[in-house]
Specification:
Shape: globular
Largest sheet: 5 strands, parallel
Strand order of the largest sheet: 5-7-8-4-9
Radius of gyration: 47 Å
Number of strands: 17
Distance between the termini: 123 Å
Helix content: 25-40%
Number of helices: 27
Oligomer: single chain
């Protein structure tokens, strides 16, 4: 078939057989195959109109005014019956299989019906193979008229989040074709649903299950799960019913019903041992009945077999061979023995199921996958043996069967089988006669084939299956296919296909209001398509990106940022707790106050007197409330819980700032009082005094450093009048002994210094000490104080007080030592006082 031309041959029939084939002839617009693989579907997703375009990528635009969907109507009883029948497993070809009896579950069934009738939700917990699905079918027949919206059957296999389950519930109850509501609309509609929901194969619990229960308060749930599934939370109020194994009598009745004859004493004893080993699971006795039926066929125990010649139509030996009962190990793990006695087509179907992770394709696909025209009957054969179990509208390998088959070699050809399945599904999902709903029903098998295929087959399958999943509103499978396809396209180097997958991921994220993800995916797609010069795809991507920008802008305008404004003094005293008050924004009018100068260490004695004088001259003025004009911008006033310590002056040091913000001993706010005006600024001379005192201290320190360096490197003989510390220099490590310690307090600035005099002969030139650099000698004016011939001593400058408006600052003159040469080669160092003045001999 030429898929590009959209024509089919006369002998060709689409896989599945449900859609008739158009006769051979020229393609017309009314022919289903004339549309080709490009099936354009229009959907309504929230507030967007989505057009699924498999060629260039889906197109999305806002809904036009007047085109919004109306309120959906609920389905009636007849429509619900049709929907329920479609959700059941398909009818298999061949003779109809007899229904299995429900053994030993009457008490559990009555209890479940009674709890659901009271509106309670129940969690039915039982191990795999305990008959949970059969019990749900029996409960569904008894609960048909309990709720106004009837009974809804849902499948929870592979569902870890409640979103898809809510959409499935919405699609089952409401008549909303080609419509996927937004989050808010979905929650509003499902709250009105009153139904008994039977959820089989539950795989979620905890907060996810609580979200599902809160979204549907009018529904009563019957949740079937295994013991390893996460338990619901304590606040969910879900009843727990545990489903155990069957008793001995029930196991024998189930075994006799499966075999179709009374059991012998040997078989009864074997069944008793099997019940003990399997803990009475019904699945094990269904498989045991299949083993006994196969044994009867091999032993020619049926009377009808005597009339036919053995070996003509069936693969069995001509000579009668007595086959013994299976061993207890074979009865506990019967998959290998059962698979060895079925037809070759059934064994091929088992290999395909092992390659697809336990998923068995629809029976209509088996002839193409196996290569046998009668391979569709293999599903009924495997189901009768207990190797398959129904899961929703499909079949899977029963619990433990896949592991048992892989141990005996059924998984050796898994890669080849998965590749074959992927290429088959790539052709089938892209066929124009296959509706999207059929592709969605086969989603698990398609995803399993996609995971096991090579990169080329994976890209082809994802490219054809993604539009079908999008059109069928199965968006969880749509996202999984897109992500797998993007990864496969990256590995295969298919840039065009990679751009398509990223574009679809961006559109999906935009429909689900995930704007950040949508922007990232669309920008990636636009960049890839720009590199390929794909103008049509680039235009489609830019249109979708423009919608993302509009949504982001609308979201930013809906919630403007808040401005924080400092609290008013009255609010600090009145509000004991932190409150947020929205007021119009106005420019704050700061109070006029002079900056406060921090008192220095030298003026600490006069600081209290100056502060007292400034506070005495302060005039207390009550605060004046300014007019508040109306503005469109909101301002948030924050009143702290702990009152801020109020100060009359602006803090000038870091410690005062932290003391105001984080008080050590918080106290309740005092009653509201008018804030006093700021103190007047101090006199300029006081600040000048502090600056000059600091400069003098720095000069004295520099002077002491220079003199120490000069005297420590002298080679002259130390005089006899004063003490001296000598050090003998060595070649390796010169050492110098200092008389002052690094931990001594800082030197105080002197008021005067000795005038420059002629140095004595004992003084030597200063040589720099290793690791230290001499400081420059500051140039000062000569002091008005008369020079003294006595030895200069350290002097402490008088502490300036606030009463002196213009303090007199005396300058210092640095004595200049001269260098002399001695015969001993030792260096004389002068002693320094705490103030840093050198002490020399007379």
């Amino acid at each position: 078939m030429d898929r590009t031309q959209g024509q089919t041959e006369q002998h060709e029939q689409p896989t599945g057989g449900s859609t008739p084939v158009a006769p051979t002839g020229p393609a017309t617009p009314t022919t289903p195959a004339a549309a080709g693989p490009a099936r354009v579907v229009s959907l309504t997703a929230g507030g967007f109109a989505l057009t699924v375009n498999p060629v260039d990528g889906s197109e999305i635009e806002p809904l036009r005014p007047g085109t919004e969907p109306g309120r959906p109507a609920k389905r009636d009883a007849a429509a619900r019956a049709v929907r329920t029948a479609a959700a059941r497993p398909p009818v298999l070809p061949g003779p109809a299989a007899s229904a299995r009896p429900l053994q030993g579950r009457e008490e559990e069934r009555e209890r479940l019906v009674r709890l659901l009738g009271r509106g309670r939700s129940v969690r039915l917990t039982g191990p795999a193979g305990s008959g949970r699905s059969a019990l749900l079918d029996a409960v569904a027949d008894r609960c048909e008229g309990l709720a106004p919206d009837g009974v809804v059957r849902l499948g929870g296999y592979g569902q870890q989040q409640p979103g898809e389950l809510l959409h499935a519930l919405y699609a089952t109850v409401y008549e909303a074709e080609r419509e996927r509501p937004g989050r808010a609309e979905l929650l509003a509609r499902v709250r009105e649903i009153g139904a008994v929901v039977l959820l089989d194969d539950l795989e979620m619990g905890g907060t996810a299950l609580d979200e599902l229960m809160r979204a549907t308060p009018e529904c009563a749930y019957l949740l079937a799960a295994t013991p390893d599934t996460r338990a619901p939370s304590d606040d969910s109020h879900i009843e727990e019913v545990f489903l155990g194994g069957l008793g001995k009598a029930d196991c024998l009745e189930l075994l006799e019903a499966g075999v179709g004859r009374p059991l012998t004493d040997e078989e009864i004893a074997w069944a008793g041992d099997l019940r003990f080993a399997s803990e009475g699971l019904p699945l094990r006795f269904v498989q045991a009945a299949a083993l006994l039926r196969q044994r009867d066929e091999l032993n020619h125990s049926d009377e009808d077999d005597e009339e036919e010649e053995p070996g003509v139509f069936e693969e069995r030996p001509r000579d009668a061979v007595h086959v013994p009962l299976p061993t207890l190990a074979e009865g506990a793990a019967p998959a290998e023995l059962l698979a060895s006695r079925v037809s070759e087509s059934a064994r091929a179907a088992l290999r395909i199921a092992c390659a697809l992770g336990g998923e068995l394709p629809h029976h209509a696909h088996l002839p193409a996958l196996v290569g046998d025209t009668h391979a569709d009957t293999a599903v009924a054969e495997l189901l009768a043996c207990g190797l398959l179990t129904p899961v929703g509208t499909r079949y899977r390998l029963a619990s433990g069967v896949a592991r048992q088959l892989e141990e005996v070699g059924y998984g050796d050809t898994a890669s080849e089988e998965a590749r074959t399945a992927a290429r088959h599904y790539a052709w089938w999902t892209g066929h124009a006669s296959v509706v999207p709903e059929r592709v969605a029903a086969e989603a698990d098998a398609v995803l399993a084939a996609l995971a096991g295929a090579d990169v080329v087959a994976a890209v082809l399958l994802a490219r054809t299956a993604a539009p079908a999943f999008a059109a069928s509103l199965h968006w969880e499978a749509w996202e999984r296919v897109l992500r797998s396809g993007a990864e496969a396209a990256r590995k295969a180097g298919e840039v065009a296909e990679q751009a398509y997958f990223h574009h679809e991921l961006g559109v999906l994220a935009l429909c689900e209001e995930r704007l950040d993800r949508a922007r990232a995916e669309l920008e990636t797609s636009i960049g890839l398509r720009g590199a390929l010069a794909d103008k049509r795809g680039t235009v489609a991507g830019r249109r979708a990106l423009a919608l993302v920008v509009d949504r982001e802008t609308a979201g930013a305008a809906a919630s403007p940022p808040l401005r924080l404004e400092a609290p008013a003094p009255a609010a600090l005293a009145a509000a004991p707790e932190a409150v947020t008050v929205a007021t119009p924004a106005t420019p704050a009018t700061p109070a006029t106050s002079a900056p406060r100068v921090a008192p220095s260490a030298t003026s600490s004695a006069s600081a209290p007197a100056a502060r007292a004088d400034s506070e005495a001259s302060t005039t207390r003025v009550p605060p004046v409330a300014a007019a508040v004009p109306v503005s469109a911008e909101a301002v948030t006033r924050m009143t702290p819980v702990v009152p801020v310590t109020g100060r009359s002056q602006t803090p000038a040091t870091l410690s005062e700032v932290f003391e105001d913000a984080f008080p050590l001993n918080p106290k309740p706010a005092p009653p509201a009082a008018p804030r006093p005006a700021a103190a007047p600024a101090p006199a300029p001379g006081r600040r000048r005094l502090v600056v000059l005192a600091g400069a003098g201290a720095l000069a004295v320190v520099a002077l002491g450093t220079v003199v120490s360096l000069a005297l420590s490197s002298s080679d002259s003989t130390p005089p006899a009048q004063g003490p001296a510390v000598t050090s003998t220099p060595t070649v390796t490590t010169p050492e110098t002994t200092a008389l002052t310690s690094g931990n001594d307090p800082a030197a105080e600035p002197p008021v005067s210094a000795p005038p420059a005099e002629t140095p004595e002969p004992g003084q030597s030139a200063a040589a720099p000490t290793p690791g230290r650099s001499p400081a420059r000698t500051p140039s000062r004016r000569p002091s008005s104080t008369p020079p003294s011939n006595s030895t200069p001593t350290a002097s402490v400058s008088p502490t300036p007080t606030g009463a002196q408006p213009s303090p007199t600052v005396t300058e210092t003159v640095t004595p200049t030592p001269t260098a002399t040469t001695t015969q001993t080669g030792t260096a004389q160092t002068g002693n320094t006082t705490a103030a840093g003045s050198p002490v020399t001999g007379d």
